[in-house]
Amino acid sequence: MTKKIFSFKLISIWIIFFWFTIVNAEPNEELALHHFMQGEFLINQGNYALAVLEFQDALAFDPNAATIHVSIADAYRRLGKMKRVEDHLLIALDLDPSDIEAKEMLGQYFIAQQNYVNAERTFKELNSLDSLNLDYVFTLADLARVNKKWDLAIDYYIKGYNIDSQASNGLEQALQISLTTNNFTRAEQVCLLLLDEDPDNIKLLETLRDLSLFTKAYEVAFNTIEKIEKVQGSSAEIYIQKSALQEELKNESRALQFMYEAYSLDSLNLDVLQRLVTLLIDQKENEKALLYNEKIINYFPNDSRGFINIALMALSGEKPDDAINILKEKSEKFFEDFTFQYLLGTAYYQNKNFSDAKFHLNQALIIYPQSRNTKHNLALIHDAINEWGQSDKLYMELIASDSTDAQAYNNFAYSLVERKDNLDFALDLALNAIRIEPKSAAYLDTVGWIYYKLEQFDKAIKYVEESLLIDSNNVIIKEHLNEIINNKTKINSPKEDQAGNHD
Prior knowledge:
CATH superfamily of the domain at 26-130: Tetratricopeptide repeat domain
Largest sheet: none
CATH architecture of the domain at 26-130: Alpha Horseshoe
Radius of gyration: 42 Å
Order of helices and strands: HHHHHHHHHHHHHHHHHHHHHHHHHHHH
CATH class of the domain at 26-130: Mainly Alpha
Distance between the termini: 157 Å
Helix content: over 70%
């Protein structure tokens, strides 16, 4: 009995001594490594709970090993215990601030938690440590995109491409962002970079062409179309595009030359013929235009453009009768054609046939109710035949739909003053017109004329003289100035005589 008690006491003393030794011992790196490796093996086997236990045993032997904290954080991440993930990663970084793996895992943890501010800060730190790491750059780009920092995202994607030109997928993301956010200047920049890698990519070339057209970079657009032509070959469509761009660049002769080349390629292409006629009309080559236009009428009699072209040439030559003769015969056939009806109405208006002008312009307005030119012309017609209720309604519609329509303000004002109706309102309208277009001789004359009707002669003379400085040969403005000065003299003369008799 005594012997057994002694043995038990001896064992107890040994256990206490062994525990005291472990607690006070230096970290046992070999045992820590053993448990660490066991933990890594269990993670690879998918047994994350047991892996945590092994890592905890490893920490008991070496609690200051940052690597163990990173691994246990990884195990907790796989178990979904996210708070412990952050705790161990922060401990790891406190022990070793330069631990890249810990920073990477912490950054990904922040992303998973949608803590984008801290995620961005973490990956910026990683990027500063390794600026050539594509993963860091693209992660920063993705974070910028999530935060809707579109320009910054594009910058990061381009930076990634500059690090490795094979990483063109980043540029594709940048292009998509640029197009989605209507940042066409950046889209153009990205397109050029993508074309460096794939210069014959038709879709990219067409995108660059469209972007350049939108930003009015016509030289870039023209050069891009020439590259498309090298890949696809010449076509009537290509020549039309090149011609249009040369016209925008004020190279009228080159624009016309391209259309002659298009005509040589396809002489019965309606679009080619129409553009050729339009260019010739613009360049005052009406005889040549008529020759090509005859082909449009002969080969495409159901297309209104051939007849419209003749009418335009007649109206530009101040021959409204000729325009009426060519259009009137086909009016019923093209009754639903806005341009046809608008031109016929305009020709009748120039010919002072207000009844037929109203009919065809109203039809044009039915086809295209948003046409401001049609409303302006109709308002002038209603004014001319004293249908002021109709003209006032149209002017109010024009002003309400566009507060910068100086012509509507001016014409409405002039209509009121000519019928001696509501002169104060007319003055407000006219002053609005010159606020919008302060250098318009016609609008300044209207203001002066209203002041004259209000018998404010000095102001009237000031505005009409200013109008004459801009348009010194305008007969109507000169007549207005003479009338104002003469009436001012007549009104002031009796007062001067009376003052003289009093003396």
